[in-house]
Structures are given as structure tokens and as C-alpha cells.
Amino acid sequence: MDNQELLDRFQRYVDDEHKIEAKDWMPEGYRKTLIRQVAQHAHSEIVGMLPEGNWITRAPSLRRKAILISKVQDEAGHGLYLYSACETLGVDRDTLINELLTGKAKYSSIFNYPTVSWADIGAIGWLVDGAAIVNQVSLQRTSYGPYSRAMVRICKEESFHQRQGYEIMIALAKNGNEAQKKLAQEAFNRWWWPSLMMFGPSDANSAHSAQNTAWKIKRHSNDELRQKFIDMTVPQAEYIGLTIPDPDLKWNEARGHYDFGEINWTEFNEVIKGNGPCNKQRLEARQKAHAEGAWVREAASAYAAKRKKSGEGRAA
Ligand code: BYC
Hints:
Elements: H1 3-15, H2 28-47, H3 49-53, H4 62-87, H5 93-101, H6 118-139, H7 145-174, H8 178-197, H9 209-214, H10 222-239, E1 250-252, E2 257-259, H11 265-275, H12 279-292, H13 294-315
Antiparallel strand pairs: 1-2
Helix pairs in contact: 2-4, 4-7, 6-7, 6-8, 6-10, 7-8
Bound molecules: benzoyl coenzyme A (BYC).
């Protein structure tokens, strides 16, 4: 069968809503773009542990500390799960990690912003995990089986994360004193716009959207998901008495959606190029953790080799 026939057959299979599995034939472009996206997603989970990890020692109560530790631990689990999904596409984990550590691979722009107060932890859970869920619920129906199944599990945990963030914001913004209300509003102001950027460039400027939508890797466009997130989040903000930091935000009766102001795309492009407020710090933290963990990897490999050898001995 020539390549065009294989491509047509692949497209028909995807159009009929079948999942592609690791051993199925797939176009090289499909494999490549999935490795790119799933790896970026995995890196985002791992780098995403850093801004919140920064507050574990300073959480305001034992209950908050225990919850935050479990949330950050969940994120490590999501990262490992996604690296495994990525490996099914024929790339090994060392290569993926190396691409993160050398700055070659991207991770979500959102994790290059600092967490300056405890309210930022509430804002991250509510807004960042909230935005991640909107994107990931859509990705549950992505055409690549291992990625789609990873999303089902991850979404369940993310919804806990989102609620714990909103609960922190309720405590501060709705039930808190004046100083706490102020802290919550300031955190909201810091995280609102970067959260909208998580959905990527506008559809008109999204390089991968057309092909990835045809392959059903993407089920909704960047702008559709961003709008969904805004429509869902504005009433939640109003309920707890927060003001949306966007003078152009207005309900549009005819569209049945909120209109909103222009995103600062220059800022977005700078952050994804490596020039955000914390890009350097995030990469250095990952490089340090990797170097300090070398002995663990060596010990685990030595132990695995020893087990293999003694297993071979027993079999002989
Ligand atoms: N940040 O053609 P486009 C979490 C890049 S973590 C950085 O629209 P695509 C959590 C894009 O990669 C959840 N880069 O791309 C963890 C591309 O660059 P390359 C993270 C971005 O792939 C801890 C270029 O811009 N979620 O929940 O069709 C604590 C052109 O864009 C961003 C995921 O990773 C960005 N925001 O669509 C708390 C979701 N946006 O590769 C929470 C999975 C775009 O050509 N990813 N770029 O150099 C996706 O769904 C898609 O990749 C995107 C972008 C919607 C993000």
C-alpha cells in the first residue's frame, strides 16, 4: 500500500472516532506533534510543582499544608503518567527530560510567574487548575488512546485541585477580613490574564491547530476553550466578591458569552521564548533537582541490574 493510501485509511479511522493505539500505524507528523504536546504537558506538571512547592513550608495551617503536599504530589504523578504516555510513541524518557533541562522543550507559560502570597496558591488552584480542566476535559476525547486515558484519570484529580483553590479563595475573599480580601483580589489580578494565556495563541495564530484538529488530537480550538473558561469563571469570581481585572469584560446577550479585552500577546510570546519573570529560576530548580537525584537513579539502576542477574541465576 502506498503512503497516500495509508494516510487516507488513517484519516478514515480517526474520522470514525476510533482511538489510535501505540502499535498502530500513524503518520510521522502525527507521532511528532503528539510527542511535542504530551511532553510539554508532562513538563508542565513537573515544573508546575515549583510555584506551589514554594508555599508548603509556609501554609497557614496543618490542614492547608497537608492538602498542598498531596496536590503537589498528584502533579508529580500526572507528570510521570504523561511521560509514560509519551514513551509509547517511541521516545525515551532521558531524551524528554534532557529537552526540558536544556530549555529545548516548552512547558506551560503559566508556571513562569511567581507566587508572592498565600492567596496565589488559592488563585492557582482555582484558575490554573480550572483552565487546565477545561483543556483536559476536551483532551479526554483526543484520538491517541494512551493520552486520552491519561486525561480521564488526571481530570478526576484536577477537579479536587480546582475546588481546594476555590475554597482558599472563598475563605479569603468572601469570608476574610479586609486585609485578606485585598490579598485575594491582588492574587486574582496577577493570575487572571496569565490563566487566559494558558489556552495558547488565538486561533488565527495557532500553528498546529488545523492539522491537529483534522487528526482529532485537538477537539476544541484555543479560543473556544478560553471562552468557555471565562464564561465559567466570571460568575464564580462575582460570587466571592472579586472584580475581574478587565474593563472590557461584558456579558454579550447576542453571543451568549462574555466579551473580554485584548490579551497581551507580546507578554505571552516573551514568556514562551524564555523571558518571563521566573523562567530562569524554574529551569535552574529542575537542573539542580536532576543533578542532586543522580545517585538515586544510579542506585535504582544498580539494584535493577542485581535483581536481573540473580533472576537469571535462579532460572539457570
Ligand atoms: N505555554 O499552535 P499552538 C497543570 C506553544 S499543567 C507555553 O496553538 P497547540 C498544572 C505551543 O506549544 C497543564 N507554550 O499549539 C500543573 C506551540 O509551540 P511549539 C498543562 C504554549 O499545541 C501544576 C506554539 O505555542 N496543560 O494543569 O496546538 C499545577 C503555538 O501554539 C502555550 C497542557 O499542557 C502556553 N500556554 O496548542 C497546577 C495541555 N500555548 O511546540 C496545574 C496540553 C501554546 O510549536 N496542551 N504554546 O514550539 C495543549 O492542549 C496544547 O498544546 C495547547 C497549545 C492548547 C497548549
